[in-house]
Specification:
Blueprint lengths: L3 H9 L3 E6 L5 E6 L2 E4 L2 E5 L12 H8 L2 E8 L8 E11 L3 H14 L1 H6 L7 E13 L4
Antiparallel strand pairs: 1-2, 1-5, 3-4, 4-7, 5-6, 6-7
Length: 142
């Protein structure tokens, strides 16, 4: 699904915006740190950044009842000839398989040194985003 150009663009990006929707289609968008696992899968984790205590996160609740997601990574510049984005959509689910989860954590730690310091143990859900569709617009080159 990911061409070499798109994969390179995503691997250079430091954050994305993840859109999920509840069972009754109420949208929810949050910034996320992510890693490219392969040409058809991205991953993100729930880390130790401050969260509301005692409740699961809306993005996780949404993916459980409606696994469809959209994720956008964009480049902004005052020179509009340099604008671009990649929009991926598909289905997301928490990773239950221990080897797949460990692989995903290694990929996330390789991209974000903060994850090495925080840790991403068993109490931190890791989610795989299986890509069904990729839409590219504008300039992706640095």
């Amino acid at each position: 699904m990911l061409s070499p150009e798109v994969r390179s663009f995503l691997e250079r990006a430091r954050r994305a915006h993840l859109a999920t929707a509840s069972a009754d289609a109420v949208p929810h968008v949050v910034p996320v740190c992510f890693a490219v696992l392969d040409e058809a899968t991205l991953a993100f984790a729930i880390d130790d950044k401050p969260k509301a205590p005692g409740r699961s996160l809306k993005r996780l609740r949404n993916l459980k009842v409606n696994p469809r997601f959209a994720l956008v990574v964009d480049v902004w510049d005052e020179d509009w000839s340099r604008l671009g984005y990649v929009l991926v959509s598909g289905r997301g689910a928490e990773i239950a398989d221990p080897p797949r989860r460990a692989f995903s954590v290694r990929a996330l730690r390789a991209r974000y040194p903060q994850y090495v310091a925080m840790g991403l143990g068993a109490g931190h859900p890791v989610v795989a985003l299986a890509i069904d569709r990729v839409h590219v617009w504008g300039r992706l080159a640095p």
